[in-house]
Specification:
It contains 18 helices and 19 strands. The strands form five sheets. The chain has a five-stranded mixed β-sheet with strand order 1-3-2-4-5, sandwiched between helices. A five-stranded mixed β-sheet has the order 7-6-8-9-10. Helix 2 crosses helix 3 and helix 10 crosses helix 15. It starts with a helix and ends in a 6-residue tail after the last helix. The chain binds 1,6-di-O-phosphono-alpha-D-glucopyranose. The site of 1,6-di-O-phosphono-alpha-D-glucopyranose (G16) has 18 residues, from loops.
């Protein structure tokens, strides 16, 4: 039971805020996300939940990130980070939802009821670290968070502006400090140094060719990338040109730039001045997503998305494991979602000869599936992902006695990769260094990378509907099949059957008030016709807002 004094403090603090009328909150794909002015009471509830979560885990540090990532500037959001830097345990999402919907007058009782239900020892300490992206609403929301953490007597540290993956890194470092799983120095500088040191190790003997232009979505990734560049200090010949790093104009965030823009529009940001074959990359607003691209000699835009990063990483790790003589001891798997281009899955199975699995959208789902492999490579097509190495993989890499200088080099490179990769969560800055390392080792330009397989033409559309909650997918279908609205899946199937190598699916977004429609097919015109037909079918049942 919470003490009467704490309950009183919670009620007093909560009543400073007003709950938006008639709004039902839900912990979605990546926490709570919506228009920033609706978020006060949700943030307050998240502060309370973090206190319970930390107490339940005997005072381990819990992270809270205030961000809406790829969403427009007027949105904001909040998500919780578990002790090893992973997303909040799924069962607790329901508790977050419950607290977020509790009336403010009785929120202290709901807090107390939850504490009993989850069997939290209330005398345990609670510790929280938090950070935010550069959105204008962030400072107000952090103020609300402060109020909730103070009322519940939580020890907390405000890390101010950070990328989402940096905060995940800090949480993992804090909880592993002084243990055999020590992950690094729990500071921003420690993060840069870990990346730079491992990058230098794995770049021994090779050099990056040409420069890399990085579009930072006018988000927190811009200033943080500049810090990383200082610490990297031209290691490996890396020459990064930072663009779209305006964090002063609040409306510039994710506007006509960033990874989501590039992936969904399949074009470079209009501001891009890159020439033919120039290597370019885009981050999203909180720097957890990364996509690469270039314009070829015929001025055609070429995208290298998350599927491409996954295949590149899996093939390189497989190659190093082979050279190190440990490939028989490591099972490597690749985790994708329904958005993965069919050609990438074929390539993974037939050329890389690796197992693949599909999960629902949301890195939290992919991460868990990845952990079932010694080396789990997971990326969403949108560029969000990483690689995990389990304890067995770490032991094999660390303890194998090299039989030749080549094996020694491969083992050392693998070891350095385990430090270069942010294993806690998808991290655009760490993923960018990983891609640069692999391209340098292979001596590839993005053109050779693109040449590994040919994507099926695809389209991803966003449709605004009256009520997206009616679009429910069949459990176990990895969101490839709808169970409701009734009849829509049959209609999608019938359109799909009329095109070659065609696939289409519909799912409700968990971060935006919209439904997503994906289609791919053998040719661009077939994919285009399919996406239009499915979009129209969604429109019929969902009554798009614009048509009301
Ligand atoms: C978040 C999640 C991703 C997910 C994306 C879109 O990304 O972390 O795993 O793919 O939302 O999800 P949905 O289609 O449900 O809106 P981010 O970069 O916005 O945090």
């Amino acid at each position: 039971m919470a003490s009467p004094a704490v309950k009183e403090a919670i009620t007093k603090a909560a009543l400073q805020y007003t709950k938006p009328q008639g709004k039902v909150f839900e912990y979605g794909t990546a926490g709570f996300r919506m228009k920033a002015d609706l978020l006060n009471t949700v943030i307050f509830a998240v502060g309370l939940l973090a206190s319970l979560r930390s107490k339940k885990l005997s005072g381990q540090w819990i992270g809270i990130m205030v961000t809406a990532s790829h969403n427009p500037a007027e949105d904001n959001g909040v998500k919780l980070v578990d002790p090893m830097g992973e997303m909040l345990e799924a069962e607790w999402e329901a508790y977050a939802t419950k607290l977020a919907n509790a009336p403010l007058e009785s929120i202290a009782d709901v807090y107390d009821e939850l504490a009993s239900k989850i069997d939290v020892k209330m005398t345990n300490p609670a510790r929280v670290v938090f950070a935010r992206d550069t959105r204008a609403s962030g400072s107000r929301l952090v103020g609300v968070l402060n109020a909730a953490l103070t009322a519940t007597e939580v020890e907390f540290i405000d890390f101010k502006y950070m990328t989402t993956p940096q905060l995940h890194y800090i949480v993992r470092c804090k909880n592993t400090l002084g243990t055999q799983y020590e992950y690094g120095e729990p500071s921003e500088q420690g993060y840069y140094e870990k990346l730079a040191t491992s990058f230098k190790k794995v770049m021994r003997g090779v050099k990056v060719q040409g420069s890399l232009t990085v579009d930072c979505a006018n988000g927190v990734g811009g200033p943080k990338l500049r810090e990383l560049i200082k610490v990297l200090d031209t290691a490996g010949g890396l020459d990064i040109k930072v663009v779209n790093d305006d964090v002063i104009n609040p409306d510039a965030l994710n506007f006509d730039c960033g990874a989501d823009y590039v992936k969904t529009k399949q074009r470079a940001p209009p501001s891009s001045k890159a020439g033919a074959l120039d290597r370019c990359a885009s981050l999203d607003g909180d720097a957890d997503r990364l996509v690469y691209y270039f314009v070829d000699e015929t001025n055609t835009f070429r995208l290298l998305d998350g599927d491409r990063i996954a295949t590149l990483a899996a093939s390189f790790i497989g190659y190093l494991a082979q050279n190190a003589g440990i490939s028989q001891k490591l099972n490597i798997g690749v985790i994708q979602t329904a958005y993965a281009n069919g050609a990438s899955t074929e390539y993974i199975k037939k050329v890389l000869k690796l197992p693949t699995e599909y999960t629902k959208t949301g890195v939290k789902h992919l991460h868990h599936a990845a952990l079932r492999y010694d080396v789990g490579v997971y990326f969403e097509a949108n560029g969000h992902g990483t690689v995990t190495f389990n304890e067995n993989a770490m032991k094999v890499i660390r303890n194998t006695e090299p039989q030749s200088p080549a094996q020694k080099h491969a083992l050392e490179s693998l070891q350095a990769l385990t430090d270069l990769i942010n294993q806690a969560v998808g991290d655009a800055l760490s993923d960018m260094l990983l891609v640069e390392v692999i391209l340098a080792h292979k001596g590839w330009s993005p053109k050779e990378w693109l040449g590994t397989y040919t994507d099926l033409p695809s389209f991803l559309e966003r449709v605004e509907v009256d009520d997206r909650s009616i679009f429910r997918t069949v459990e176990g279908s990895a969101e490839r099949e709808l169970e409701s609205p009734f009849g829509l899946q049959e209609e999608i199937n019938s359109h799909q059957s009329q095109f070659n190598q065609a696939r289409s699916f519909v799912r409700a977004s968990g971060t935006e008030d919209a439904v997503r429609v994906y289609a791919e097919a053998a040719t661009r015109s077939e994919a285009d016709s399919l996406v239009k037909r499915v979009r129209a079918a969604v429109g019929k049942v969902g009554k798009p807002k614009a048509q009301q």
